[in-house]
Design brief:
By secondary structure, the protein is of the alpha/beta class. Strand 7, helix 7 and strand 8 form a beta-alpha-beta unit. It is elongated and about 60 Å long. It starts with 10 loop residues before the first helix and ends with a helix. A 6-stranded parallel β-sheet has the order 3-2-1-7-8-9, sandwiched between helices. Strands 5-4-6 form a 3-stranded antiparallel β-sheet, with helices on one face. It has a single domain, classed as TPP-binding domain (Rossmann fold), CATH 3.40.50.1220. The longest helix has 15 residues. The model has no long low-confidence stretch (mean pLDDT about 95). Helix 4 crosses helix 8. Bound molecules: zinc ion. The site of zinc ion has 7 residues, from loops. Zinc ion binds next to loops.
């Protein structure tokens, strides 16, 4: 019987993670809902059923607070400091704006499930999206204003993934950059830092990360997850897993010399 993955949190584990990040040529970061929870960012009730005239009055406060707000939670700043000076790339499943305002490079951030600052047709008739600000301001000035698609007249919604009608056009370029980063890492030491990625949509980050680790000679997986810290058995010797909170791990890492 194989031993189960050790998911405890202690000084030795901290040192292993710090060393892996320090020695890496490249760092691939995956951010899930657990990261935002640890950062104190409210979970978005994306399944909430709303009437047309309730949609924007309900979502605008979230957009203002989580996407247009430049007061970045500490945890985001800590991540930015850890990645400072490194060759990194981030895939993020959260549609907020905090990564953008935390001092990280836009070109290295792939918001795979959309961006609350953009709007799209609710039918996604042409796979087009638009900057939302013009519509947000109008809704706030006149609550009866209903933004509609200029192509087909259907109501506009946030450009955030909730199912099959998602407009992915604004993210294609970053999607390619993400694959270029992974392919370009083949001969390098690749540290994969997975933060709070559970089973809401594991096919986006969690499963592909396990696959990369399995196929990449010099990859190491660092998984920080309070609920689901285990990795697949085949990757156990290439993984450092902990059930500690991200809010505990990142500040502890920062105290270690990272460069
Ligand atoms: Zn349309």
């Amino acid at each position: 019987m194989a031993k189960q993955t050790d998911t405890s949190w202690n000084e030795e584990k901290l040192e292993q993670i710090a060393k892996t990040l320090r020695q890496a040529d490249q760092i691939l970061v995956g951010i899930g809902g657990g990261f935002n929870a640890a950062a104190g960012v409210a979970e978005l009730p994306l399944n909430k059923k709303l009437k047309e005239n309730e949609y924007w009055p309900f979502w605008l406060p979230y957009i203002r607070k989580q996407r247009l707000n430049k007061e970045v939670p500490e945890l985001y700043k800590q991540l930015a400091q850890i990645l400072s000076g490194k060759d990194y790339f981030i895939i993020d499943s959260n549609p907020d704006g905090f990564l953008y305002y935390s001092g990280l490079e836009m070109a290295r951030i792939y918001k795979a499930q959309g961006d609350m600052a953009r709007v799209q047709c609710s039918k996604n008739c042409q796979n087009h999206s638009w900057i939302g600000k013009q519509y947000f301001d109008k809704v706030e000035a006149d609550a009866s204003f209903l933004p509609v698609c200029p192509h087909c007249g259907a109501p506009l919604v946030m450009n955030v993934y909730t199912g099959g009608k998602f407009c992915d056009e604004p993210y294609q370029e970053k999607n390619s950059a993400y694959f270029r980063f992974i392919n370009g890492s083949a001969r390098n030491k690749l540290a994969i830092l997975e933060l709070g990625v559970g089973y809401t949509m594991p096919e986006l980050i969690r499963f592909p990360f396990e696959q990369i680790v399995m196929n990449h000679k010099q990859a190491k997986l660092i998984r920080v997850n309070t609920m689901h810290p285990l990795c697949v058995e085949e990757n156990r010797h290439k993984a450092i897993c902990t059930e500690a909170s991200i809010a505990e791990v990142l500040p502890a890492l920062l105290k270690k010399a990272m460069n």
